[in-house]
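go over my protein:
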Amino acid sequence: MARSVALSFAVLLAVFEIGSCLRCYQCNSESDPYCRDPFQAGSRNFVDCFTQDAVNYNKAYLSHIFEPRMLESPAGATRQCAKIDLQTGATIRTCLDVNSLVPDQICDALQRSTSEFRDPGRQIRHCSICSTELCNGAGSATFSLPLATLALIASYLYYKQ
């Protein structure tokens, strides 16, 4: 019985990340060349979407590209990861407030709001939204080191018996 509980616990630890918030890559290729595609992720490139840092980044950097109303949080919105490619070739990776029922709505709204601008630095070529951990990168696999360690310890205890 104890073995099956330990094994179940190890599997749960390996599969679920306890107490985490959504983390997304946050960078722009105009100031960080590693942000372009092919994306070269680094530990300095991601942020917890529910911190003030994510909001401040969007206000400071994205406010000169998008209308300020586009960066306001709509009622009932959730934070999700976004990757935005501009006509100039610049790439932006960040967290955005998204209507969880229609996630692509924010991309459509951003593209409509910037289509009238003649400045290619403000026109969107591509926009995508995703809601999993660090998903606005290049599809790299990530894991939680503390949870992997706990799973390893639980597995050791299981096989030790």
